[in-house]
Amino acid sequence: MSRFLWASYGMYFLGGTSSVLLGAIMPELLVHYHTNYTSGGILALLGSVGFIIGVPITASCMRRFRYQFVLSGAALAVAIAQIGLLCLPSFPLLGVLIVINGMGAASLETAVASYIMEQFEGRRAIFMSRLEVAFGVGALALPTLASLFIALHVWRLASLLIAMIAFVLTAFWQAVSYALQPEHTSSDGGPRDARTAAPPIFKSMLLKYGVLLLFLLMILIYVGVEGSLNSFLPSIFNVYLKTQPYLASLSSAVFWGSMVLGRLAIGWIVRRISYERYLLGSIVLGSVFFLGLILSNTAWLSYLAIFGLGLSLSAVYSITMVYANHTFPGMERTVTSSVTAFAGVGGAVFPFAIGYAMDHFLPKQVLYMILGSILVLLCSFLVIYTSLYIIRQRHVPTDKFA
């Protein structure tokens, strides 16, 4: 089992590196192709399109092939795309490679998360938090290395590095022989998630899928907010707080650094706090810290707010996914693939909308738009919790809020 888990962590690390590569080398790409940021935005959108396309393809492959084949294929798709990027082909072909990279990233995230959800019922949040740590470390490490490569005028080596990691994982998955068990649990006596109220009994399909859609709305909004912060946080600092460009860029490092720290702690937290309480506390704190960012008028207060925001929201995505899978037992692959697809939509739509707003509204108005999105996220969770509480009270009177 250890090989399976470490290879899974490696896949999420790969996903983290490949997801931030385009942003890390965007200025160099635009100079090389003699184009502008509008074209760069199109490339980012193509990556999201590839991500969305990759989810249903992966779900179909998971029904037909062994997990080793599916995961090797996902890593190989990323490797091929990165080797293509290394060669700096024509701009249209570059767009095709970006789509392939997005498909590979979607495939590895969908497949790994689905297998973890099926295999480790009762410990899902613990393992998902570890996967998210691996993703965050990759997302932190790649820009640092890319900056070094850019300084040495060998920025294309960032793609080569990702391709090498992907090729290693492609081969490694073929050496993993762990048999996925249908019992949905592990017998090694490891730590388990805190007790959460039992899954509800839905009386109608309409109610069941209505609740699922609310979970997916949460995912869409959260990933949209995170993607917008990834794309525009330095610009917001630069324009709103009038900071120097190098200080503005530091805001992204502070945000992702706090995200990684929060994800390191979540494995301990979810053994003591139920999914519901964690999500409620995280989203409320995230709203407070973001309001603090809006109201702050000095750089150091803004950095503190960003640090608190990253800590607060660090595991909202993974815990929402785990909570959704807990709510719909037996639907792990459907729920996980749907979550991943809606994450792709949110990651495409929100940054586009915020980018448009940055050109047409005042920075403070844009910040309030993002805060409004976080509040909608909170309202969506409260509707889910209230609905599930009412359903449980009607059909499982002994269950209580854990």
UniProtKB/TrEMBL annotation:
It is a multi-pass membrane protein. It comes from the Bacteria. The keyword Hydrolase does not apply. It is found in: Cell membrane. GO terms for cellular component: plasma membrane. InterPro entries: MFS (IPR011701), MFS_dom (IPR020846), MFS_trans_sf (IPR036259), MFS_Transporter (IPR051788). Its main location: membrane. GO terms for molecular function: transmembrane transporter activity. Residues 4-390 form the Major facilitator superfamily (MFS) profile domain. Gene3D superfamilies: MFS general substrate transporter like domains. Belongs to the major facilitator superfamily. This is Major facilitator superfamily (MFS) profile domain-containing protein. It comes from Alicyclobacillus ferrooxydans.
